[in-house]
Each structure stands twice: as structure tokens, then as C-alpha cells.
Amino acid sequence: MKRTEPGHINVNGQQTIELVGKSSHGYANLYKMACTQCGHEYNANGCDIHIRKCPKCQKGKPSSQ
Ligand SMILES: [Zn+2]
Hints:
Elements: E1 14-22, E2 29-35, E3 41-45
The structure holds zinc ion.
The site of zinc ion (ZN) has 8 residues, from loops.
């Protein structure tokens, strides 16, 4: 399963939910993510999905825009 496919879960337990659209920078795809540990939802750039950590319970960086 590719990291950008809905349902994918990375090594940190962060699940890809769906494509949101382009980032505010315009060059990256933004994906809705959910933490399987605490249920927190946030957005991440597609290129960052595999290394993303939950902003709430894993001290990851804040939601991307
Ligand atoms: Zn979490």
C-alpha cells in the first residue's frame, strides 16, 4: 500500500485519511491524517507522511497548511 492511500499507517501509527488538496505553498499535496493512538486529526504534506508524528501525543510538528 502506498503511503498516500487512505488507510495507510506509517511506522509512528499515523493513518492517511484522504487527499485534502494542494498545500498553501502550491507544490505539495496535502493529506488529512489521523493518529491511531489518540484520534487527533491534522494535515500533512504527502512527502512527509512516512515520517509524520502526532502533533498532540508524539510531539510532531503542527498541522501543515
Ligand atoms: Zn496522537
